Each structure stands twice: as structure tokens, then as C-alpha cells.
């Protein structure tokens, strides 16, 4: 339990609202927060204090797909008496098992892959029986953040097909990433399963698959990105991900718009960056749609 006077360490590369919680909300409750480069294991060690109670990160991170070595960071945390909280949304429970790698708590936005069709909002918190009993149960009982019966039913039905959907999306995402690489106007492609991915070895070590998110950058910045988005016909524009439909968003003006330009630059989020969540459509059909949008982006 993190209380007034305690300290947490969090990775800089996270969903924009998570950064807002760490930087803005935690200090209001007297909780100090140190942000670190999650890729640098030594940075986690340097940030530890006697009053550090939790280390928090998502891996892969949104939208840069930066990875954190879960096992190594968990060792650091436990040596200092802290818990490890992992946002596992991008990897899904199919592709990555943080609890088996040493994490204490795992959180999901069930709105993403668990539902998988953009129907319901929901979240999941997982941990040991002791954690749930001593901390989570009473909190939920007194504050009431529980799903409606219908939403819970939708999520349970979504879990029945989760592995099938995720594996199919991973296969298509790998093909889409390879298709985008080297295309005119595409300056960079990030996908955890590509050999040129900076943390490919870590991805292979702690993930059994590489996800359905492909992040790429376009020459021409925001203007080219918006021309690209407006030209899409099959892929839909949305901040959501993990859906049966392929979805794309412009992080600089959506998920990370709260951050100042210099903060986005520090995270590697440029005005030309786009995050593509690959759905269940044919990879060939997606490639055709993306090619048409790339042509439109270059016309400016």
C-alpha cells in the first residue's frame, strides 16, 4: 500500500494518463515519484529510496514499444522492499506473464484485447491472494469500482476467444511491419518482433509473441500524418487498441497530448509518429489501404 510520505518509481515511457497520475496526482496525496528510463535497469536501482514502496511500468510501452526487463527490475524492487506493478495491456496475458517473471501486481485495460470489439469499458487488477485480501478487496468494497453484470459477461465471453484473436493479430502485425519498412515516406518502423527492433533480444526472452501494435514514423511530421489518416479507408482512426478492427492514432495529439513538446521528444514521440493496432482483417487488405494512405501523405 502506497501512502502519504512514500515514494514510487515509474517509467517515463507510459500511456499519457499514467504519466499524469505519476506526475500530477501522486504529489497531491504526498507521494513522491521519480521517473526513469525504463529500458535502463541501472536507472531503477539508482532511483530506489528507503521509502520506495512501488515500481510501476508498462511493457511494451505506449506508443514507442520500449521494453522493461521485468525479472531484473523485480529483483531490484524486492531487495528494497517494494512491489512491482506492471501494465501488461500491449503484451496481453497471452504473450507475457509478469507474475511468473517476478511482478507482484498486473493491471489491464480490459477495454482493449479482453473485450476485443470496442463494446465495454473495464479494468483488471491481478495479484497474489494475500495482496487481494489485504489491500485490494477492502478498497474495492468501499469505493465501488466494479463492473456491471452485463459488462462482466461481455468480458468473460471475450476471454473465450482471446488467444485465437491475439495470435492472429500478431501474425498480421508482423506482415504489416515488414511491409511498411522501407516504404517511401516511412522513416522508422518499430515492432517488437523485427530483428532491427532495438530490444529484440529482451522481447524474445520475456514474451512468447510480439503483439499487434506497429508504430511507425512518417516524413513530413503532423501534416503528412494527418493526410495519411484522412486517406485511410479500411483502418479506422481511434485511440483504442486491441480491437478486431484495425485502429490507428496520432499519439502527439491524442494519447500524449498532455505532455509538452520537449517531454514528447524525450520519449521519442515525434509529430510524424503513428500507432497502428492491427486487427483481424487480411494483412494484404491492410497493406493496400496503408499504401494508398502513404501515397496521399507524400502528395503534400
Q: What does this protein look like?
A:
The protein has 300 residues and is an alpha/beta fold. It has two domains: 7-149, Type I PLP-dependent aspartate aminotransferase-like (Major domain) (Aspartate Aminotransferase, domain 2), CATH 3.40.640.10; 162-298, Aspartate Aminotransferase, domain 1, CATH 3.90.1150. Helices cover 41% and strands 18% of the residues. The protein is built from ten helices and eleven strands. The strands form two sheets. Strands 2-1-3-4-5-6 form a six-stranded mixed sheet, sandwiched between helices. Strands 7-8-11-10-9 form a five-stranded mixed sheet. Strand 4 (83-87), helix 4 (92-95) and strand 5 (105-109) form a beta-alpha-beta unit. Helix 6 packs across helix 10. It is globular and about 55 Å long. It starts with 6 loop residues before the first strand and ends with a helix. 42% of the residues are buried.
Tally of separate domains: 2
In CATH, the topology of the largest domain is named: Aspartate Aminotransferase, domain 2
Side-by-side strand order of the widest sheet: 2-1-3-4-5-6
Sketch the major β-sheet: 6 strands, mixed
Number of helices: 10
Approximate helicity band: 40-55%
How far apart are the termini? 53 Å
Uncertain segments of ≥5 residues (pLDDT<50)? none
Q: Choose one word for the global shape.
A: globular
> What is the CATH architecture assignment of the largest domain?
3-Layer(aba) Sandwich
CATH evolutionary superfamily of the largest domain: Type I PLP-dependent aspartate aminotransferase-like (Major domain)
Q: What is the class of the largest domain in the CATH system?
A: Alpha Beta
* Overall pLDDT metric: 94
Proportion of residues in β-strands:
15-25%
Derived structural class: alpha/beta
Order of helices and strands: EHEHEHEHEEHHEHEHEEHEH
Q: What is the alpha-carbon Rg in Å?
A: 19 Å
What's the β-strand tally? 11
Amino acid at each position: 500500500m502506497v501512502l502519504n510520505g512514500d515514494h514510487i518509481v515509474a517509467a517515463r515511457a507510459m500511456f499519457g494518463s499514467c504519466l499524469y497520475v505519476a506526475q500530477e496526482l501522486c504529489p497531491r496525496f504526498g507521494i513522491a515519484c521519480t521517473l526513469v528510463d525504463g529500458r535502463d535497469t541501472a536507472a531503477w536501482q539508482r532511483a530506489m529510496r528507503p521509502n520506495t514502496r512501488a515500481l510501476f511500468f508498462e511493457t511494451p510501452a505506449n506508443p514507442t514499444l520500449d521494453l522493461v526487463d521485468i525479472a531484473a527490475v523485480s529483483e531490484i524492487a524486492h531487495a528494497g522492499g517494494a512491489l512491482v506493478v506492471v501494465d501488461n495491456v500491449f503484451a496481453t496475458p497471452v504473450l507475457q506473464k509478469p507474475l511468473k517473471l517476478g511482478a507482484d501486481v498486473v493491471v489491464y485495460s480490459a477495454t482493449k484485447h479482453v473485450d476485443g470489439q470496442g463494446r465495454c469499458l473495464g479494468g483488471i487488477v491481478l495479484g497474489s491472494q494475500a495482496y487481494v485480501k489485504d489491500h485490494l478487496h477492502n478498497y474495492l468494497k468501499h469505493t465501488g469500482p466494479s463492473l456491471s453484470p452485463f459488462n462482466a459477461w461481455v468480458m468473460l465471453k471475450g476471454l473465450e476467444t482471446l488467444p485465437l484473436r491475439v495470435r492472429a493479430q500478431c501474425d498480421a502485425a508482423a506482415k504489416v511491419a515488414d511491409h511498411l519498412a522501407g516504404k517511401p515516406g516511412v522513416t522508422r518502423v518499430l515492432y517488437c518482433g523485427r530483428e532491427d527492433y532495438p530490444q529484440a533480444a529482451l522481447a524474445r526472452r520475456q514474451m512468447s509473441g510480439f503483439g499487434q501494435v506497429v508504430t511507425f514514423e512518417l516524413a513530413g511530421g503532423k501534416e503528412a500524418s494527418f493526410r495519411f489518416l484522412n486517406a485511410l479507408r479500411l483502418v479506422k482512426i481511434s485511440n483504442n487498441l486491441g480491437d478486431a478492427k484495425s485502429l490507428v492514432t496520432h499519439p502527439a495529439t491524442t494519447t500524449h497530448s498532455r505532455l509538452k513538446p520537449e517531454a514528447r521528444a524525450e520519449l521519442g514521440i515525434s509529430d510524424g509518429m503513428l500507432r497502428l493496432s492491427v486487427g483481424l482483417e487480411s494483412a494484404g487488405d491492410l497493406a493496400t489501404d496503408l499504401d494508398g494512405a502513404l501515397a496521399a501523405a507524400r502528395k503534400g
